[in-house]
């Protein structure tokens, strides 16, 4: 694979490490998996043999979005009136939905992963982290192996969060016995996946994250062993924090979740938490001091009805912040670009209740790009500059949708929103989606196979 020359881009969001800048009327040249140059009038002298020239007139070119929290398997419970948050209490909802999750088979995990990743790619996401914590006994242990298979098919850069639950429902968790594992089972499979798939090299397409589901559903030893393994193998750690569980954790362990995890060592620059909407300012300051990051998932706020996460405070305290879709149990789409818009609008809605001002809309693009790269421990993705991974997406703005908006590409997605798929998505220097098609794949066939797998689930 030589590369591509994107010719006559209307705007390119460039960041050489000092913050994003808009370059107007320039070309982008890729070489294999990397960006070679960005500038005016790149021509024959800059090209390698086999370089493909692509007319990019009218295109706004953005760094690929990075999704830092999802549950792909939940794509099979979308848009169901019988699972409507507004008609059920949280406990009723959990009691209804977890038995459904426990009936999924291996093929369901594969096809739901394809479904989620395909939607992510269509909307500009080039790197996805999935928190796969559901391991029904009958489905076996090769569920994340199948996720890597799905990512390979679509060309997605994939970070697999190997989750798990170890605390029985009889001892206070919400997890059915069919979804439980022992700590040894969980740790052993984390180690197997790291040995089999984890690639820490530049432009890696496969990484593994040690990710016990959440403190309320796991024994203390599960987190202790997770920290030991992750630090030994030098991989990232992830879990759910600040979703209303802190009083439960305090009743069990004598301290709220952030302090509990910090004491166990499950904190620091190699750790990031999902959600964190219930945390106090002191807890956020402590996380910032330790270097622990936050994956903010804005769209579940609509369905769950919880308070809006205090992103202005997180920004003011210097926390590392990324964005996530979350699973379809609390967000019925896998569209991170839509989440970017939602994140900004929700903060504007809650601004009158905040001590700190809402960050500018361009910062929200940063959360979904450089912020996400930071959470995942990556320095080779998240921004467009020579030497960085050629992960990007393009929007042809020569449409009525964009009249009056084109003067500010940095704020466009957060303030206006993008209501359609990208015109092109490139991952690791390869175009995987263009002109409404997955390159080399039959979407109709993928759809039919996913629907067939879905039909095997008993609701």
UniProtKB/TrEMBL annotation:
<protein>
    <submittedName>
        <fullName>Amidohydrolase</fullName>
    </submittedName>
</protein>
<dbReference type="InterPro" id="IPR032466">
    <property type="entry name" value="Metal_Hydrolase"/>
</dbReference>
<feature type="domain" description="Amidohydrolase-related">
    <location>
        <begin position="60"/>
        <end position="432"/>
    </location>
</feature>
<dbReference type="InterPro" id="IPR006680">
    <property type="entry name" value="Amidohydro-rel"/>
</dbReference>
<dbReference type="InterPro" id="IPR050287">
    <property type="entry name" value="MTA/SAH_deaminase"/>
</dbReference>
<comment type="similarity">
    <text>Belongs to the metallo-dependent hydrolases superfamily. ATZ/TRZ family.</text>
</comment>
<dbReference type="Pfam" id="PF01979">
    <property type="entry name" value="Amidohydro_1"/>
</dbReference>
<keyword id="KW-0378">Hydrolase</keyword>
<dbReference type="InterPro" id="IPR011059">
    <property type="entry name" value="Metal-dep_hydrolase_composite"/>
</dbReference>
